[in-house]
UniProtKB/TrEMBL annotation, chain A:
TM stretches of this protein: 15-35, 85-105, 117-136, 142-160, 172-197, 203-227, 239-264, 270-288, 300-324, 365-385, 392-409, 415-434, 511-535
Organism: Citrus unshiu (Satsuma mandarin)
Membrane topology: Multi-pass membrane protein
Protein name: dolichyl-diphosphooligosaccharide--protein glycotransferase
Domain STT3/PglB/AglB core: 580-639
Main location: endoplasmic reticulum
Alphabetical list of Pfam families matching this protein: STT3, STT3-PglB_core
Compartment list: Endoplasmic reticulum membrane
From TrEMBL, chain B:
Subunit: Component of the oligosaccharyltransferase (OST) complex.
Predominant cellular place of this UniProt entry's protein: endoplasmic reticulum
Topology versus the membrane: Single-pass type I membrane protein
Subcellular locations according to the entry: Endoplasmic reticulum membrane
GO terms classed as biological process: protein N-linked glycosylation via asparagine
Annotated pathway: Protein modification; protein glycosylation
Family indicated by similarity: Belongs to the OST1 family.
One of the record's GO cellular component terms: oligosaccharyltransferase complex
Role summary: Subunit of the oligosaccharyl transferase (OST) complex that catalyzes the initial transfer of a defined glycan (Glc(3)Man(9)GlcNAc(2) in eukaryotes) from the lipid carrier dolichol-pyrophosphate to an asparagine residue within an Asn-X-Ser/Thr consensus motif in nascent polypeptide chains, the first step in protein N-glycosylation. N-glycosylation occurs cotranslationally and the complex associates with the Sec61 complex at the channel-forming translocon complex that mediates protein translocation across the endoplasmic reticulum (ER). All subunits are required for a maximal enzyme activity.
Official protein name in the record: Dolichyl-diphosphooligosaccharide--protein glycosyltransferase subunit 1
Domain of life: Eukaryota
Keyword annotations: Endoplasmic reticulum, Membrane, Signal, Transmembrane, Transmembrane helix
Amino acid sequence: MAAAAKAGEATLRHAFGNVLSFFILLLIGVLAFSIRLFSVIKYESVIHEFDPYFNYRVTQFLTKNGIYDFWNWFDDRTWYPLGRVIGGTVYPGLTLTAGTIWWLLNSLNIPLSVETVCVFTAPIFSAFASWATYLLTKEVKGAGAGLTAAALLAMVPSYISRSVAGSYDNEAVAIFALIITFYLYIKTLNTGSLFYATLNAIAYFYMVCSWGGYTFIINLIPMHVLLCIVTGRYSSRLYIAYAPLVVLGTLLAALVPVVGFNAVMTSEHFASFLVFIILHVVALVYYIKGILSPKMFKVAVTLVVSVGLVVCCAVIAILVALVASSPTKGWSGRSLSLLDPTYASKYIPIIASVSEHQPPTWPSYFMDINVLAFLVPAGIIACFLPLSDASSFVVLYIVTSVYFSGVMVRLMLVFAPAACIMSGIALSQAFDVFTRSIKFQLLRILGFSEADAGDGSSANVVPENDAVKVDKSEETIKERPSRKNKKKEKEQMEKAQAEKTSAKSKTEKRLLVLPMELSVIGLLLLVFMGAFYVVHCVWAAAEAYSAPSIVLTSYTHEGLHVFDDFREAYAWLRHNTEVDDKVASWWDYGYQTTAMANRTVIVDNNTWNNTHIATVGTAMSSPEKAAWEIFNSLDVKYVLVVFGGLVGYPSDDINKFLWMVRIGGGVFPHIKEPDYLRDGQYRIDSQATPTMLNCLMYKLSYYRFVETDGKGFDRVRRTEIGKKYFKLTHFEEVFTTHHWMVRIYKLKPSKNRIRGKMKKSKSRTSTPSSKRSGSRKKNPWQ
Amino acid sequence: MEALLRPRIMLSLTIILIPIFLFISGASSHQIRINNAERRIDLSTHIVKVFLTLKVENTGKTSASEILLAFPPTQVDHLAFLEALAATGKKKKKTYVSLAVKPTQLPDAPNETNYYTIVLANPLNTGETATLEILYILTHSLEPFPVEISQSESQLVYYRDSALILSPYHIKQQTTFIKIPSNKVESFTRVEPTDRAGNELKYGPYEDRPPYSYSPLLVHFENNNPFSVVEELVREVEISHWGNLQITEQYKLAHAGARHKGIFSRVDYQSKPTFSGVSSFKHLLARLPPRVHSVYYRDEIGNISTSHLRADSWKISELEIEPRYPLFGGWRATFVIGYGLPLEDFLFESSDGRRYLNFTFGCPLVETVVDKLTIKVVLPEGAKGPSAVVPFPVEQRLETKYSYLDVVGRTVVVLEKKNVVPVHNIPFQVYYTFKPIFMLAEPMMLASAFFLFFTACVAYLHVDLSIRK
């Protein structure tokens, strides 16, 4: 009777617990969504930065022309005159996701524009990602840790920086795909269900569709499998978790055009196949071990090992030879720079020139994950008490992602979920210990006998670990009798196990009781730390990461001042130039020009052709005439430069100029970096070198700049410019925005040949012309 | 034929005298005579307004009920608006009666002259006189010359017309006044007597001109007023019976003046505003109805931050907008203005139980020509029997639009008109019948959808479909 009442009470408690977790999760989702809306509230509902504009343009194309045209899309408005095959070179996950959402809404007659859907895709998927984190952490350490980790992930600044409303980039959906793939892997590992294994392969497929970072998954999971095998944790569940993933996942991945045969050919995927073979060997060994007597088994092992070694050596030798025959050892440049952090800066300046490929600084860790950095070690320790398959996976995840985030600041994004999971575990365990101690001490103070108190504490404050397991079984009894029946045996086994562990943990918990004062102080400190984290995250979301970067604002004594120069220039180009005109600019502005101005560009942010970019870099760093010739040979009609000297906008083209010289010089050796340097620095003041003062970038940036204030004071470089008065001979200014941030020049048509004039000019400028002709020979477009 | 050609000195100018009265059918041209005609042409903006005062006398035997107005073919294409008023009463107590005007084809019109017939309220008996006040508005009639100007030049335009009023009737005495925006006149045709005083040119008085007298007139003068032309404007008025009227206006704006040539220098534009880019414009003023709310101003790439709204609950609200960049000749810009209005100000119930929307036709931008205006009135879902009442001829058709959770779609009344000028900003009505129960359709639909969803969830949780127990 009493037992039944107790059981009833327990079900009620669990029902309440479930409803409570459901609402907490709902609120976490709302939090994840709404904390990312600062950009819309403070600025406007607009696509941010550079890459999102490309994704937006692709989505527009998809919604307008349909999926088949999308796969076959050859984009002739970029990389002129080469063009770009969009369907085969883009990760289509994000585009297809947003396109599907848009299509669904429109077929329900909810007329949202493509732009609105794109802007809000990232916040929606952040909510999904925090729910996926809950699921993953729940599999590792129980629901309490899951909820904490989900709440932490919902507002981790590192993730916010890539997923504010309007930041319509691959990472927005990829983090969700990453976490859900890991969750399904762990779930399969814990249950051994082929159903979850299939789902896992599909989730992996979604990840492959979404982001190049999928290689992280396909290397991390094999590493974990290998770890399990080495530590003697091989089980049939491990086999089910891994083998279908490799087979199905690789087949599915090969369906994505951008991956295609890379899924089996490149070295990034090599580890997964190797582990696949090892796993089968191990499985075979376990099987043979099962059917043979120990004596026979020993004989068999010696036989197999001796033959197997020979075969293995042969295979490995062939593989090594194959891999070594390719120049990059079968690795892509970005992957290589991950393994060897100095690789990019040595060989590929174009990868090194992207700020998000630089290694992060220490403050950026504090900025991006804040107090989580201190909680992570505690979480790792918690994962080792006790170490399970799942928790070892999480530990492996955090260790590898810490390394990768240390190489590339952009991969902080992969590190953030791991940090959240670890901190969630740590916080949840710490709260667990503190609250239990308080309860225990309270009961003792109130005069209960120690035995009772101990009992009470373990009965009432059910540790999360047990709670989940009991929870799970009860849930299945109530909700899914059919499923439950199938797994009855397993459940019972699990229950028994759970009871065993709970019995064990009971004794442990007795030992873990802390003094009252200490627990209260610890609890307060934890709450204080959490509050600090929340405040920091809200600040980061509101102030640091919500600027769309195409609109700049500043607060002056008169109030808010808006710098909307980029869109001014793009709108001007869109409406006042011919639709087929080509616009040359540094590659940073390529995506924006094609998306906002709808004009053909020479290079864009998809930096697939280094030579082409080097050509533009060469033109920008050449003198006017040589630059005109390069641009003219490329059919360019307008040249766009970004100039921040008037208003002090630091990321302008003069500050990016060193990369133009470096990339240009990397391909065309007549551009020599030392020519532009004075004392190892790029200077534009009176100390600048003549090459610098005569290059196109300098001239286009500072043309008639001196007339604004009479001195030509550059507010970014904080100096007066070196050459103040000069004329342009081959270019003419056609548009400059309100704050001079974007300047557009038109190439003058080539002059009619006049016999006398030609002669005269030749005789007059004999020396420079010879020099010029020398450089012209090296010009690749002649 | 020669009888018409009275020997007169025509000051070396070609005169096109078209002797057609013999061929014109109808006796009206014989019997009507214009005693006095005064024409005032206002060229101060790019919209040409002509005020014509005619004193008409019936000299024939029978009474006349129609007066013909003639327009040369070059003008008739640009004629945006034509209105005729009959003045009655003495000087102080003059009252004006609006008269019906309709285009007319005459079989033997000389040189493709086009006619409009003014139908008089009371037929004009023999010997009677009447005073007609006629206003017509021409668009795209100022031709920039030079066609291309650079940033520092000001804009010069040609205006072509006839010094003599083109008319199928004999005109006894006529005078033309041309008002130009500034004193700067490059040249103007002299048809003696011609006089210039400040910014006004006076042609005439000319006496006793036979029908279809014509004397070309060319004025070349400076006009730096904004030549703002909306090439296409789509105004969508969406009625929601929950109390809101949502208006979305899509503009394709262009500067129709002399094309900009060569460089655009921001230094010059910012430091010398009086010399540089005088013919360009960067401000536009939109007059929106009172009690306007939730105004937005954007284009296809996002919000445009340069706008100011002076909203008022009683008077007209003024929205001052700036395009993203100043518009020089030939430059274009597109943008969208949207705003909401309280429904009770615009939706009324007529005596026969139908509802009607009373809304302003035309473009809210001040001093702007609209080449093609489309007004789409989106009626609520379930509205029936739509009919539009517009005080001037427009093209009408019906469309269907699907908006938030529509099932059968909303009826859209589409009104199209070309060549719209600010005088067209007068109310029009759209009548329809609507049962208020339709307002509940969408909330009920949503509620039932959620209800079904939760029912399905409950059912799923309580049904055991497993085969093995």
